[in-house]
Specification:
The complex is a heterodimer of chains A (116) and B (555). By secondary structure, chain A is an all-alpha fold. Chain A is built from four helices and no strands. Classes of the chains: A mainly alpha (116), B alpha/beta (555).
Chain lengths: 116, 555
Amino acid sequence: MLGPALGALLGKAIGGYHGPVFALLTIAAAALAAAAATPSGRWWVVPALPPVAWLIAAAAELAWHNPPYADTKAKAVGLVHATTHVFPVTLAALAVMGLVIAIATVRSRRPRGRRA
Amino acid sequence: MPDRRRIVRRRPAPALLAGRVLAAFLGAAVVATTGLVWYENKQLTDGTHTSTAIKGVKAGDDGYVPPHLGNDVNLLLIGLDSRRDMNGNDLPTQFVEDALHAGSSGIGGYNTNVLILMHIPANGGRVTAYSIPRDDYVERPGGNADVPGLGTIKVPDLGMGKIKEAYNDAKAYAEGKLTAAGVKDKAKVEAESREVGREATLRAVQKLTGVHVDHLAEVNLLGFYDVVKAIGSIQVCLKAPANDPIEDGAGTGLKLPAGVSTIDAATALQFVRQRYHLPDSDLSRTHRQQAFLSSVTHALRAKGVLGDIGSMQSLFGVVKNDIVIDNGWSVLDFAQQASNLTGGNATFSTLPIKGYADVPGGSGGKTSVNLVDPDLIKKTVTTAFGNDAAVAPPPTPVSSASAPSTPATPSTAATKTTITVNNGTKTVGLALKISGVLFDNGIAVTKTGNGGDNVAHTTIRYGTGAADLAKQIQTKLGTKTAPTADKTLPADSIVVTIGHDYKLPPDKPTKPTKPTSATSGAQPSTGAASTPGSNGINGGDDVDMSSQNGIPCVY
């Protein structure tokens, strides 16, 4: 959760809360979370990413869009924009998570003796 | 023992398993939903031609106006009189001449024959739109243009000229620069030079009106044709019969009766392009364009396209190759902002002019232009656009479900009496205006024509069976001479010949009235207030999108 939130915050500071900073930090945080989690914890970390990333992107869009969205209909359009921006980032983050988990799984299955 | 421990680790508790499944399902659902939204939005925008011209007009450029505060949107609609596609290729000659009735590919150049500046208030108030007459003689400032491959080029000041030619002249300049720099890709030359043309148009419009343009939408002849074709057909309403024969390469060939007509794409193009045989030539044409926009909105609403993203997507899929929108805008934004229009909550006006003059230019050495008062125009536009707080609450929209599918205005096909109005004076367009007066009183004229130059007194003659209607016409026009029976006229026919003694009623706010039952049933007219008079020629009656159920009647 920290990754996308930090990404949106930093992104806003340099001009785009849905821009590359948001994408990079979200992906990096997803990779770290997947690496740090236990095998059991990964069952929760991976599914949590899409809703968390979407919620943060949506909140950022509604809070920081300039000019602010005036009414409900405009806010709905804002959510579509946020969704459009966050989907590729989510996909990339999930792919990276999958990669990290796959590497971790392979490494954990290696015979311990070969590590030395 | 070790085997049992392994088995226990691999079988989580049922609650934990259910939680994992639920979390996985939630995550997958979010991915699927966001993916669907992403895909639909991508479908909507893929292939759309976008322009960076809005940001291309920078602070320091003459014609730059800083963006306004707030959420209001100023939108510039550009109708380009180009017979070329987006890549600079001529449209097929046969298509242009036979389907578009638009003459050869060499005509028109890149003139912006339609310029409509629209203000959409954020508070949901009434949309105000101004047509800028294409021949307005204005300053056309130059500026710096960023052209990929060339860097920044300085477009020179284009001087005083017709506002419609700012696009064409700046585009031609940029095209020359690109060609001289060795750019051979025709599509690239076309795209980049058009951007420079758009920026020149924006500078001229902002310089003239004093307001910042937030978004633009550009459509060419083909795009216009495709839009109407995609919609199917639209209904338009004329106050006077239209007859615009093609003569000496001029004219559109339009022939429509007074009242409501259902027209196809080719006829729609004739409808908005006609400028001859109209009371006020180009000014009347702007009203045609305004009424057309209203009719299109009515048609989209009636068909349920506006507000339905799927329908809008399929419509946009057809037309997106022919239109250009700025890159800071999306179709979704437009759909959301257009909600003000869908309720018919909009008024179209034409910017006033001071008069006409001939200036050097054109193929004949001189060209006719509209003289304008820039200060008056700035004041008019900035006041109207900056007055959202004072706008009245929008009228209750007529829902597509409850509104009749056709307006109350019947066409002249319903009448059995043929009414001809002839102009017996040298006043141009008088017969059309008389037709408008009668139309406003529920009487649709069948035909207009010339009846000589020096008829002193207005006469009304009628054939068998038309005495009552002839008397009504006399009453409506307020003429002194009583109608006379004329056995040379066919039965059920009336001929009105306007003489020098006839005085047109002054412009005044008009309200819709019920048509007289004994007549054609033609519905009265605009339901609009006339533009406040100025120290010149006003732009004519406003076109109110809420009149006639969204199909305003114009000349």
